[in-house]
TrEMBL record:
Organism field: Sporothrix eucalyptigena
Keywords assigned: Disulfide bond, Hydrolase, Signal
PANTHER family the UniProt entry points to: CUTINASE 4 (PTHR33630:SF9), CUTINASE RV1984C-RELATED-RELATED (PTHR33630)
Stretches for region Disordered: 251-277
Compositional bias (Low complexity): 251-273
Name listed for the protein in its UniProt record: Carbohydrate esterase family 5 protein
Length: 302
């Protein structure tokens, strides 16, 4: 089964590569949260299609790295609890599984089309989980009884090391506390904790997992408000992390020990409120899907 998945990924990636435009700067692939619409309500405010809820962070990075492209992972990002209706765990894991496959396909396709270009992966909530699973391996069907998450083999380490410059996971439900790539003051595992972080740890030089204490989902806390604000809470840190990675990469590539002429990212009192509004306004549906996951887990665990 695993081999079949990898073969399928290769065929799809090859077909997709023909329609890809290579970025002169950084290619940023975003994973949107549960329930965020695939069609952007406003590209200027929320980012391109398939990035709603996190694309505004990538846009801020692109403003500092000329020639960058912001794109989204094309997956359902399904809300398993629409309109506060009955929670459907199946809806979530089917969406997440599709997201993992889509992430693998799109990263592989871009690498095939643009082998000399660099990728940044930025995901929020369910969007963070699909990226983590694609890079670190699927969490499998036994983490939460009844949730048939896949056990997919991760993308090849050689591909990630050569083409993926930065990985930012924001409020990942599979977060594991006290790893080498943790950022934030979280001390607890997420509601769908990853059993094995070995592959993730190998990417500590290029990956950061952002989680605030008491976040309902990445920290198994009791605050949904903290979760909804996570993309905004860590916005400036994510921007600085990715831009710094790019600056170091370009300096190394040019053989210069001097930093590039890109400006250092700093918090802006004029842009930060607008960014916060963008993130919060399009992330409300994340609350229902993630809350449903936790409640389902608690129900099973008693």
């Amino acid at each position: 089964m695993r081999a079949a998945v990898l073969v399928l990924t290769g065929h799809l990636a090859a077909a997709m590569a023909a329609n890809i435009t290579c970025a002169e700067g950084l290619y940023m692939l975003c994973g949107r949260p549960s329930g965020a619409p695939a069609i952007s309500p406003n590209v200027t405010l929320y980012g391109p299609d398939n990035t709603t809820g996190v694309g505004f962070v990538a846009d801020k990075i692109a403003a500092q790295i000329p020639g960058s492209i912001v794109a989204g992972i094309e997956y359902p990002a399904s809300d398993p609890d629409p309109d506060n209706g009955p929670f459907n765990l199946t809806t979530y894991y089917l969406s997440e599984n599709q997201g993992v496959q889509a992430t693998m396909n799109q990263v592989t396709a871009y690498h095939a089309a643009c082998p000399n270009s660099q990728i940044a992966l930025i995901g929020f909530s369910q969007g963070a989980q699909i990226i983590a699973d694609a890079l670190c391996g699927g969490i499998g069907p036994d983490v939460i009884p009844g949730a048939k998450f896949n056990s997919s083999v991760p993308l090849p380490v050689s591909l990630i090391e050569s083409s993926v410059l930065a990985i930012a996971l924001i409020a990942d439900p599979t977060h594991v506390a006290n790893t080498t790539y943790d950022v934030g003051n979280s001390t607890n595992n997420g509601v769908i904790p990853r059993a094995n972080t070995t592959v993730c740890a190998a990417y500590s030089d290029r990956m950061q997992s952002y989680c605030e204490a008491n976040d309902f989902f990445c920290d198994s806390g009791n605050s949904t408000a903290i979760h909804l604000a996570e993309a905004n809470t860590f916005e400036d840190q994510v921007v600085q992390f990715v831009v710094n990675r790019w600056t170091n990469y370009t300096a190394s590539k040019s053989g210069s020990s001097q930093s590039s002429s890109l400006p250092s990212p700093t918090p802006s009192s004029t842009t930060k409120p607008n960014a916060a509004n963008r993130g919060l306004s399009v992330s409300q549906t994340t609350l229902w899907s993630s809350a449903g996951i936790l409640m389902a887990a608690l129900a099973v665990l008693g």
